């Protein structure tokens, strides 16, 4: 069995020479200022927050960002938001994109929507994470509800399990698609109600509560909280569409749902 290193800091400023990392997986890792030289990078897949990313002395950051913007123009719309009308329009775009994506899932058996592709969140888990994100960044911060968290919500992977349990989240829950969709639609309606009544002055209002216990103490305005949620919505939809394409290909090839790991 391959070794696993979870939340390890023993490798900070470490040097690896002649090491074999074939087939290794780095997930949710801090790889800032990492330097790789004279190494084989073949069949390598990288995803995450990219900045100043240099490959063979060529900074490819702008190319990657530009290509993502071309494929997903909603990213450009999101970055350009300034006035309340921009936020309303952006949420309308998100609603439309997700409506199209959910319609696409109806071509797959529900069991496929609980499967993980390359150990990424399943489609149902993705929706569960967006439930949590809405509860945290909208219900808790903007709407000022002390405990808005749905038990089916799924925090980010580094959020402590004890903290999740303390706010009523059941990480062991395995809800059906219908149960998740019901909670998801309720949360999307809340955001729609907020952006419908949003004014330019509202964007600068400082929210009194943290998104969830354990988050850092810092100033969060209504505009910032909405932007965080909308970025979560656009990026996780991108991941979901990527994985739906794989699941659709599996179905067309006659692969059984059990050929991929269930969430």
What's the layout of helices and strands?
Layout: E1 54-55, E2 58-59, H1 61-71, H2 74-79, H3 84-105, H4 123-140, H5 161-166, H6 177-196, H7 222-252
Antiparallel strand pairs: 1-2
Helix pairs in contact: 3-6, 3-7, 4-6, 4-7
Fold and architecture overview:
It is a single chain. This protein is 43% helix and 2% strand. It has seven helices and two strands. The protein has helices spanning 61-71, 74-79, 84-105, 123-140, 161-166, 177-196, 222-252, and strands at residues 54-55, 58-59. Helix 3 packs antiparallel against helix 6, helix 4 (123-140) runs parallel beside helix 6 (177-196) and helix 4 runs antiparallel to helix 7. The radius of gyration is 20 Å and the shape is globular. The two termini are 21 Å apart. With 263 residues, the protein is mainly α.
Q: What keyword list fits this structure?
A:
two-stranded antiparallel ribbon; single chain; mainly alpha; 263 residues; 7 helices
């Amino acid at each position: 069995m391959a070794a696993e290193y979870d939340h390890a800091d023993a490798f900070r400023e470490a040097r690896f020479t002649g090491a074999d990392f074939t087939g290794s997986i780095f997930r949710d890792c801090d790889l800032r200022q990492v330097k790789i030289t004279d190494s084989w990078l073949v069949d390598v897949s990288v995803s995450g927050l990219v900045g100043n990313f240099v490959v063979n002395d060529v900074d490819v950051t702008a190319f990657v960002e530009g290509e993502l913007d071309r494929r997903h123009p909603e990213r450009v719309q999101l970055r350009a938001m300034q006035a309340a009308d921009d936020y309303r329009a952006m949420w309308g775009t998100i609603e439309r994109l997700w409506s199209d994506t959910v319609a696409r899932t109806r071509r797959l058996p529900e069991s496929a929507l609980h499967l993980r592709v390359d150990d990424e969140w399943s489609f149902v888990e993705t929706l569960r994470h967006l439930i949590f994100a809405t509860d945290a960044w909208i219900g808790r911060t903007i709407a000022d509800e002390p405990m808005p968290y749905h038990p089916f919500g799924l925090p980010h992977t580094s959020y402590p399990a004890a903290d999740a349990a303390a706010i009523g989240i059941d990480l062991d829950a395995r809800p059906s698609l219908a149960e998740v969709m019901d909670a998801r639609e309720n949360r999307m309606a809340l955001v729609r109600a907020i952006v419908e009544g949003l004014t330019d002055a509202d964007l600068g209002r400082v929210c009194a509560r943290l998104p969830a216990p354990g988050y850092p103490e810092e100033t969060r305005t209504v505009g910032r909280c909405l932007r965080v949620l909308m970025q979560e919505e656009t990026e996780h939809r991108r991941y979901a569409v990527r994985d739906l394409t794989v699941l659709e290909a599996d179905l067309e090839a006659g692969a059984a749902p059990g050929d991929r790991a269930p969430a």
